[in-house]
Amino acid sequence: MTRGVRGRAGRWLQLAATTALLAPVGRALAQGGAHSGPQKARSVFAVPEVPAASLLDDASLQITRPGTMQDLASALINGIDRTGHVRQGLALEIAPLLLWGNGVNLERYRSQGGFMRANLRLSLATQRTAGDTGSTDISIGVRTTLIDERDYMKSKSLTDSLGRFLRACAIKFGPRGPGTVDTAAVNGCIREDTSPSSRHGNRRAGTRRRSPSPPRSAFAWSSRC
Question: Where are the alpha helices (DSSP H) in 79-180?
Answer without folding.
Answer: 96-100, 106-109, 112-118, 156-173
